[in-house]
Amino acid sequence: MYQKQLKEIIENGETEEVEFKKSTAQLEKGLRAICAFLNHKGGAVYFGIDNKTLVGQQVSDPTLRSISQKVRQKIKPEITPEITVHGDGREKIIKVAVKEGLNKLYYLDGVAYKRVGTENPIIPPEEIERIITEKRKKGWDSEICEGACLKDIDSEKVKWFLRKAKYERNFEVDPETPVKEALERLKLIRNEKLTNAAVLLFGKDTQKFFLPAKIRCARFKGTEPLEFIDMKVFEGNIISQRDDALEFVKEHIKLHAKIVGTEREENWEYPIEAVREAITNAICHRDYEIASNVQIRIFNDRIEIWGCGHLPEPLKLEDLKRKHDSLLRNCLIGECFFLIKFVEEWGTGTNRILKECLDHGLPEPLFELIAENLVVTIRKYKITDEILKELKEEEKNIVNHILKHEKISRKEGVTILKVSPATVYRYFKSLENRGIIQRMGKGKNIYYVLM
Asked: Is the pTM of this model over 0.70?
């Protein structure tokens, strides 16, 4: 049956979905056609056919492996072609077939090609821009995750999610619902295939498909990112990453306790809800096509949460401190986070971070774009850049010492400033009266910390 079909294919010649190559010596040109087919409607390259003549192709296991390896190495996003051998003896041919790509655009060595008739021209920049714009409207997280199947999904995590969604938002899907049906209800399956969001949320081995999708956490010594005290990298699905990252923060910040009346009151030195919200936002809104990790950096005087990617247009940094529309970069992830109450109302996350910091007696958090990444900085002390500008040089030196070492004694003040104990005391008293530092201890053990 196939011989008859092959004869018809050869007689019809090259078409929009068929290309002939004399041998695998022309593999590079064949790869260009495969890339073009992926960006069009799919197609097949036949090695062993010259024009409309069957000339045959030597076939060996190394040859077939070489074709498969070259396709996976050179064409991005990575795909796996269907490679089959047909015919007997010297009349063997190799067919390399691909379906229309689900994650366009596809690039061969960094160049995108399209199929036009029987040719494979380069896609012009303006067309690439249009395709990318349309792609962004759909959202990266709704694209198909190439090579992923239901076996890659953690069914227990899906059940946990459904139980929590039912409790938090009364989501009416039974936790015992089969995984495939549950993912369909969550819109995490498209064209019978798993989306990127499905693997990020529930993958058994998420980094198998998305290697950079990690959170890198570090506790630094002092106020500069120079020396580690502790560092961990959290992998797995993004739901677990969120919890792991928050626990890391808790391990490296102080918990203060005091008795109010007959009750014990505990307070973290940073507002935990603000930290949790910033971590959640970084995971939910990150650009997963960027080969970098979400980072959490803990210093003596602040916590920095580094996202991946700039703000979605048309949002500006100044919008984050007032009411603004929610512009989700990853709508499916956002919807799922909403169902389990990881996020609340759309567009209010940064406002909550701001409110939590102020309610905690801390200065406003900083929202900055650094190297095209959104960075949220939650500062530990009430002192701000504006206050620092008003200080004398000696007072700044005192504050900077405390920022680096967390406290300062009168003896250390004399050594640092090279002045008399009485003069040091006046500087300390001035800073204390302005609510910048606080005296601790008694007698010879007196030291000062920032408020």
From this structure: no
